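tool_log.txt
---
The assistant was asked to compare two proteins side by side. It first ran the structure predictor on the initial sequence, then on the second. Raw inputs and outputs are pasted verbatim so the downstream comparison step can read them without reformatting.
(1)
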Amino acid sequence: MKILLTGATGFIGRHLFKALKDENHEVVILARSSSETSFTSEDKILISDQDFETLRVEFSSIGFDGVIHLASLYVNQHKPDDIKDLIQSNIFLGTQILEMAKENNVSWFVNTGTLFQHFNNEKYNPVNLYAATKQAFEDVAKYYYETSGLNFVTLKLNDTYGPADTRKKIFNLWMECANSGRELHMSPGEQKMELIYIDDVVNGYMTLVKLLENDTNRSYCGKSFSLPSKERMSLKKLAFIFEEVTGKSLDIKWGKLNYRPREVMEPANIIEALPGWKQKVLFKEGLGRLIGDT
């Protein structure tokens, strides 16, 4: 199939790009003109920050079967200066893609959401403004899939991890502290975590693409799915396993920091698991792969 992939330069996007190519799909990425895209080699690139009319013409000339929308801006605790960028990245860009998808009768659209849209396991209660913008985009999308043949489905993620992750994630911080012997101040550490290894995340997207490819009746349209972990453990327990797997000690002072506002103490489980998907890599194995790669 011909697939437009946004967010291909990010952690999940690079892994998913390779998986799609390995299955012989024709992948076109949408990226900023300033993005590092050398990994795409001969593949076509659409530039997101060019004139919209030019982008529409280029989009139309390709004839996409589907869109996988990963691109977003994540800010945990926003500042006033972040508002414009959050709306631009998480609502405006996606709406432009939906407009082009409708104009060109694209069959399906895989959106990426977050379980942060479900604070306290509620149907909708955003943890932060980031989560609110993700919900707002889903609300905008309803207009497009109700007025076209677009099969729109959202995959809502929790925490993800794996090799070559340059995001400011906890394992990178812990490894830095373990190697330096630096003392680290953290919250009391009782918040529960669910983590999904990158191979399982990619498999989730690939599974959903196959479901939509065969969903001629649009039975999945408007639905949301999740990739639930078989393991749910506290941040303190994660640190213990980290020390066990790496053989390194962490000098963590638990409780020196307060929990963040609207700290997620229990990950939401209100969203249906993606049909046909199963977690294959449990945490100890995934962490071992991550450590072995660094």
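(2)
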Amino acid sequence: MVTLPLGELLRETRIKQGLDIESVAEGTRISPKNLQAIEDGNFAALPAEVFTRGFYTLYARHLALDPKEILTLYAQERKILPKETPYKTPPPNRLAENMKNLADRPSSLPFAYFGFVLLLLLSFGAFLCWYFSWNPASYLSIKLRSFDAIQQVEQVKSQGSQPVVLQSIFALAQSRKTTPAHPTDLMSLSSPSTATAATTQPDERLGNLPSSGITKYHVNAVFQEETMISLTIDDTPLRTMTFQEGEQVSWRAVEKLTITLPVNTRTKISLNQIPLELPKPDKNHITLTIPEYLLR
């Protein structure tokens, strides 16, 4: 029975498994040059004994062979080397190169690095949203609702008719030409309100109407107790009004709306049907300014 040399045994096993020198070098971190020397049985081209035995062990494990049997065959072949072919220790630079090959990192960047960087960026973005109290989902929802309202108003205008909201307000103002205006008559489109105004004149009944442009902000307020507020809509003068418990009013603005409330108020405010959280109080009152409040 003819026994194959150790190098040929390793080569044939590698070929049967469909592996090439490069793939084995990638898996074992042994340089292709040393792998070729192992398969050729060129012990003189291999590094020191301790490294060479390590190479054979790694190669055997990669090919699913028994490392002990491979090292036994290696020791037997080393003993029968011709005396005129003594083993030579490689120079220091070659020895350092072999050490580097054993500890060399993979050449391809693992996908785990990319995933870690992406996770770090997402965590940093979430921290910024939390720190600045900014909810991107709510912001996008408000923008989409405003855009939808603008599209509806433009559609009504393109049909050559006045928007229903403005028609209702103008009709209400015309019907009360000789009667002192109630401050919330023009604020609620659904039904007249019973709120009383501290400083409101009959000629201020159109104060809630936008002077020009398209209505962007529809603010709704529900009062839980008797509450006195100050209100400014777009370019209209500042007005002070008192509302009773259970009253509900609506205001519409083109560019800006500012509401000043008592510090201990339980009033519920919503913008375009989206509930708003009141800002922190400033001394003895709370000031809600739209749209500045949405940009915080």
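---
observation on (2): Confidence is low (pLDDT under 50) at residues 161-173, 175-207. The beta strands are 196-197, 217-222, 227-233, 239-243, 248-253, 257-262, 268-271, 274-276, 285-290.
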